[in-house]
Amino acid sequence: MDYQLTFKKIFSSQYLFTGIRITAAAIIPALILYQYDMLGLLSAIPLGALVVGSTDSPGPFAHRRNTILASICLNFLVVVIAISLHHNPVLVTIFIVLFGLFFSLIGIYGKRANSVGLVALLVFIFNIDSRSSFGSPWLNGLMFTAGGMCYFLMSLLLHRLRPYRYIQIQLGESLRSIAEYVETLAALFKVKRDDEYLYNKLSLKQITIQQEQDSMREMLLNTREMVIDSTAKGRILMMMFLDSADLFEHLISLHQDYKDIHKAFDNTEVLQEIETSLHAFSQELNSIGYAIQFNEQSKAHTDINAQLKKLSNVFALQRKKALNKNTLPLFIKLRQIRFTVQDVGERIKRLHYFSGYETIATRYYKDYPGAELKVKHTELSPSLLIGNISLKSSQFRHALRVTIAMLIGYFVSLFFPLGHGYWILLTIATILKPAYSISRTRNKQRLLGTITGVIISFAFIYFINNNTLAFLLLLCTMVIAYSLLKLNYYISCTCITIYVIISFHFLNQSDFNVVVTDRLIDTAIGCVIAFIASFMIFPLWEHEQTKDLIKNFVDANKKYFNVAAGLLRQPEVLKTNYTPVRKEAFVALANLSDNFQRILSEKRRDTKLSFYHQFVASGYILTAHIAALSSLITRFGKDIKADDFDTLINNVNEKFKRTVCILNGEPVKTVISNRNAPITNKVQKLLQQRQQEIDEGLYDVQSDVRISLRNLKSITDEFEMIDSIVADEVKIATRIMQ
């Protein structure tokens, strides 16, 4: 095990940075208050900092600032209302309905709005218990506001000191994820391999990379006027992101079926050298990712030029040994793989260069298209909220589910003598998510995490009972809890339970056993209620969304294909419309794949699950071939007549239309075959002429036939492969709709 690499991975993570920031914002005021023996009375101040910090997610500072301020204002209002009502169960019930519906429904405005709503709901739950607040409602509201402002000021200070920190952390993690993707791609070229396992692993990693690049895209777009355009470092960071996006597209084009290549070249050095090159590139991307996160100049561990030259020599040697009229098509395909590997190597060299942040590097800035940075924004329109008040809306069904479950939990806490009944509501609010599969997983993790945390904290205090060590444990568990909240909910819940129990131990040691018992009982009750609610109250099954996601995917890939094919006529499209359309296709594929993964975790399985799997699998191959087509047209398209490919383009579009009609339940037209496409016949004729040249011993002569065949066959093969995949999707769509 590489402990140095593990250490770097932990301490360069954005999640650890988040955990430390939230912990510091809560602990610093808590220590000051504890020093003056006021923590028990003014605990709302560190709690206010803690909850506001939970809404702060990576992104443009303007968005983060607005989210924090909105949360502070909303929390103040909620605290005042909650404490004013906690002696009247009827009014509390009414506001559980109002707040439960509203704060859950505002999630339609995006992740930030959803986090603000959830935190406001948690603050309401904290304060409906009479023992968790002291003094007047306004005083408690001001204390929560003071805590929130502490976090806001600390966040503002960190941004002023290191304005690029979030961007560097996110970019570094994205490059390291791409490095893992490259490492998996390298395994596709091994003699002994598990193709199905590797394809699934590539699919899951692609979802992660797409999410990270979306986050980067949002940060760069919304900080561009404030930071990027005014400094060399900012411009270089933007260029590195755009290079990484293009690099990822080149890599996706390698996500293909190589059975014919393996059959012909498994016992040769060519595939071994491709694997070696990709493995080396993975290490280089890892190195660059860590260097960016630590604000260092990356150091190359591999001579990329020498590696690419070696690959080229091995390919030339194998070509000299085995090229004949039968293996010619395979060598054309193998050469395209080599070209892609070379493109990847060149981009990695440029990323190494950019990591030095030299001012002279900004001369490349004008060559980068700004279109890649376009993102969609959700408008905060009241009509959107009103339009979602319907059982057809998954978010409204989720809001109803949360509200009903919270009402049940509140009534249970009223009619049974539970010490900390609000923990039941906290458990329900944090566990329930719009999709059943996520709620089910979080339910199990919450319960197991609570039990584990209780055992660890009880054992620690019973056997050690040292306040200094207890405080250190509290600090560590807080950092871990908020670092892993989005990565590992089980460990996060374990750590939250530990630091909550230790906090009660510091505040009131005599009630420690009662706190432990209440924590277990209340969490168990909340988990049971949440489980029943997620399963029985307007459940949202993932397969209910699959058809719409398939439609979005087909539409996005149709646009992606047409823009890629359009590069034959308008190469300048590459700098305007191409990159946004590519992004939409990748996002649609990631959403569909993510949906399928969640279907697998549901208790209730759809009878058409195998067809969904086939569609997702074909989707990855289709996207890879469109990416490969784009790369080939960019490389060879200048010397090709665009009109020659019109028939192939029309055939693919006809099949796309057929798929859409089937999914919409509309009449379907007959598909046109591309067997008699003029370009197909032309390529076949060129292939025969080139085979004749090879028979005559003209292996290395750069004849017109060889050059034309090299350019045309690769592109034509990609068109025909895309046509074949879309035809398969027509069949799969038919089975899905039956």
From TrEMBL:
Name the residues that span the membrane.
Answer: 12-32, 38-55, 67-85, 91-109, 138-158, 399-416, 446-463, 469-485, 490-508, 520-541, 611-633
Matching entries from InterPro entries are given as: Memb_transporter_dom, YccS_N
Where is the protein localized?
Answer: Cell membrane
Q: Which UniProt keywords apply?
A: Cell membrane, Membrane, Transmembrane, Transmembrane helix
What Pfam families does UniProt report for this protein, alphabetically? FUSC-like, FUSC_2
- Record-stated family: Belongs to the YccS/YhfK family.
* Annotated protein name in UniProt: Uncharacterized membrane protein YccC
| Native source species | Parafilimonas terrae
Q: What is the lineage of its organism?
A: Bacteria, Pseudomonadati, Bacteroidota, Chitinophagia, Chitinophagales
